[in-house]
Amino acid sequence: MLLPPGRLLARVGVTPTMVTLVGAFGVVAASLVFYPRGELFIGSVAVTAFVLLDMLDGAVARAADRTTRWGAFLDSTLDRLSDAAILSSLVLWFFGGGDAPLLGYVTLFCLVSGFGISYIKARAEGLGANCDVGFAERTERLVILLVAVGLGGLGVPYVLSAGLWILAALSGITVVQRLIETRNRLTRPRRPAGDTGTV
Question: One cellular component GO annotation, for this chain's record (predicted)?
Answer without folding.
Answer: plasma membrane
